[in-house]
């Protein structure tokens, strides 16, 4: 293998060596780094080379830090391909018998379950319990993201906060201030709007994407220049279910460094003091989506339904006749974000995906259902 | 990627042209009484009266409908006005010591509402002058002007100054005649030796021209010396050696004597005998209200009459200890002596009398008194000197305005009955004299329709005003106080004290006081305050709802009646447990039959419990139903069968504030007010640039530093979506009746809609006997439901953004608003389209949204707040007619935002049409008081006593159009671009051409008026709200303030009581 390595290093720009393990079997093949293809093609290829065409697979790979990370969509597939040096080590599991706890920081360099069993209060009963299953990132609903990296100046950051009707406060304050602009006439002091305070435990603070003294430039695509503090406040509140703020961060050292092609890229592992996040480029239709804006109509019979485009999976439970609002409790909503953090114990490292998943929370399609049942049972799951 | 940016519509030239024919913004006229008047003048030749205000505006009034307005560039208080009689010119003296010359000029003809209007006269400044020297820097500048005298010849202006000098200006060129200046030493030289004491004579206090001999003027100095000065020979003809501090001088018509008034409350009569150089003593000296110390007689008039004894009129002079705080004016003639007792300060007064030189006597016909809060005119020719009703300048704020309501095209029958009811009220005090100020000609076309403006007041009255024309005239006053037991004597009501001559003739009392005027800001019981008004102009049903949860249904009757009012109590809390109302009690209804004068008479009183302020009412006279809402819920009442159909609680379980009533808010508002004052004080302290270190200055500095320490936190706003737990989420903001499709698309029927503060909308299907029979049959319960009205909840809509629902209205199959009750059934409007699907337009503070019915699925929407950062305050559906095509009109949604902008949207497409900048955003009371007419005009309060009338329509506007016959030729002035930009009082008038233009003017007025207009201790003063932008009162405070009417109102009351000052404006 060493010999091969040396030979292949000259080719490493174009090809990626793949070593795939399923059960006790290994397969080796190579992929073109510049044309990796899509994830579903890759998935088919794996099923083909292992000769297990109808087996549902959970695909994991070892990243540069030795963490076992999942591959389940185009993004993390490209990530895996692009960071493989020189070898991409894959670990396949049957989905039905998958051990999700193996994913995470340092998961490959230590014995399985040790950290988890240390965390659990009753290690003796642990064995009887089925392992707690956490969902994969695609099953999570994002709570924040940096968007439009490719079209914004590097000094600016466009942050999207997803309120999704949950009870966790957005948790920030804005104030008037003045900022210095460079104009053809020289430096000019202009009034501006700044973030003045973060509420501890609020959504804004937990994302780490906004900070005190960041200058607010736009709210959902509308420039705030010339608008009063009250106007900007109202605009933000009116957009609070899906707030997109373009800021000029006060701290310009943590800016996203764009890779040459301008394509989306993570900043995984680049520097240890840089907080890293998923960077998504959303399609325009996402931004115009009105899903969260749907008003609730309760027919006299007591059946509640969102007003438009009712998806089949999204069924609202019937409501008591005189209760106009979903009575979501703070505890139930925050539980899920704790889930995500709690299940990934050593999130202090600069690992990429795990950190990112800390900014994800409960999945959306069945969230109403879950909350409802939690509330009705009176039970709150804490982990 | 950037698609989510707000997309602008492409401009279609065709559409732009139609828009221009439909929409145009202008502020047309100000109704009511000028805020803070400071000067008065009268032109006896042209019969015009001018009033100057502290904000620098001049308003000229003649016959009803004749009005001119001018606004000084510097918004300094107008201290004096003098007409150049007959010339249509006037001079104004401002507080900043400048003299301005104004002229009535003929504007270029222009097209208004499709009608060409020619020769429209307006008031314009043509020149100004200020005396050399640096007045205003020191408070006692020698050249500070104290008095002005315009000679009868109108070519010379004499200026008396603080330093005692008299200067002369050539008119109308406003140039100083240097050589003529008369300094004090010239006078002192001619004084007899024993009167020369080395002291100055004091400022010039009065200048009066000899009534017969031109060129001779009387100069009165503050220390008491009066000189008859000959202008041509430049020497003192006579000296009158008065020793008492002088206040004013007046000539007798023949010039044989003059009268001086003094600061000790005395007046002296001095005979003028030629050849007698020195007069040491007056012929007589009287202290009318002596012998105890008296206040000064500020101004005195002496008018001769053909019957012999002169009429003496003077202000002030009251006994210092007993009546020093009264605002009085005395009319005296022989034995007749009346002391007019006003409720506000006397600014100035004049008499209307004959001016023809050939007449021997003055024979005054009327006395016109300008008070701080109203204008009072006394008929001096009718025995008993009764007061004349004013056809304009009505004191709208005689009790603070709490709400208003406009009724367009009033049916003639209703109009006549309201006018008659109003006449019956005034019957006894009527004098047959006509209005004495009758100059100019009203050339405005007669109004196309009669319009009523109804104002609700703090004292429980509803006043009906004729709003058809330029002059807002009172028609009728309805009092609701006599339905309840109140502390005041029931016999006081509903008649105004002043309107009852029996009460004016008080028993032998000295001084013989007579209460005059109707300004009475003190309410007997704040719970009587009117919050909502709804009038059905076809059935003459009126619903009036007040601060203590009272909802009164009234009917119009031409006869006096004494009957017991039915009372129904509706518990809006229903079965909610655990709430206790800590606010005010309900008003106790009268148990015995009360007498009701002709007019609107109460039929039913519905009392909401808890007795929180009523926040919404709706009336459907065809179904005999009223709906009403408070902060706790809403109810539906059948006033025909006198039974409650529905009561629904809208309280959110977590909302404790709504229950606590008004008390809990006192602290927060008080605190923010206190902070505001601190800030004002601080800014004043730091604003001064004096460098002299005095002990007081050091203390001030220390205080300022202390104040600075206290307010460390910068202005910041919390960004948090509205939640269901927000306080007062259950406040019912709007109610609406409609005949529409709620349950299915085939059967329509009566429905009731209610919207709350937290974005909830409730829709009920109503079963009204005899209406929508199809429904009743279908449900099978026809026989039962025919007995009484039933309401069944049809739908609940929760707007996800949870913003308060400002308005709900139904649109028919063609997307047109449904007509009012009776309009369709009596063929008064085009019948609604009931064949195609209806839709409902829900306007919240943040969004406008149209939903189709009966499915309630969103059709169109406009997210105003998300796009513009402004919130919807008022919404109205208006019909705009085209100036070009006679029969073309469009239904438009007019939307007033918290920034004072008017946004117009088409319906049901909700596409923005045009936007105008209308009210200053700091003017919260202005925005809150705005009402719209159905044809595109509107009103809002620019001060507690004045409505600004504006028009959004290119076709329908009501503005003064008048002409005056002048001595000098009227030359048309070339207009720059066909539009005249006329300034208006309080800096509000502008013909807006574009945004930019409007804004520059806006900034000008916003700079000055907050400081000038409002007393700083008025809780609603703009000063506080300006400070808001730098930050003490939070948006929430203001928002809450506007929504929680009853609380805010009571807070204000508390505060105003503490401060011992009347409250400003109370608006819902």
Mean pLDDT of chain A: 65
Class computed from helices, strands and strand pairing of chain B: mainly beta
The level-1 CATH class of the domain at 144-253 in chain A = Mainly Beta
Give a quick account of the main beta sheet of chain B: strands, pairing sense, barrel closure: 5 strands, mixed
Biggest pleated sheet of chain A: 7 strands, antiparallel
DSSP E strands of chain B, number? 66
CATH architecture of the domain at 144-253 in chain A: Roll
Continuous helix count of chain B: 16
Poorly predicted ranges of chain B: 1-7, 489-506, 662-668, 681-695, 773-785, 972-1068
Q: What structural class is derived from the secondary structure elements of chain A?
A: alpha+beta
Can you list the strand order of the major beta sheet of chain B?
16-17-18-19-23
**Termini gap of chain A:** 44 Å
**Oligomerization:** heterodimer
Pfam families (chain B): LLGL (PF08366)
Region (Disordered) (chain B): 422-448, 486-510, 967-1012
Protein name (chain B): Lethal giant larvae homologue 2 domain-containing protein
Keywords (chain B): Exocytosis, Repeat, WD repeat
In short, what is this structure?
The complex is a heterodimer of chains A (383) and B (1068). Chain A is an alpha+beta fold.
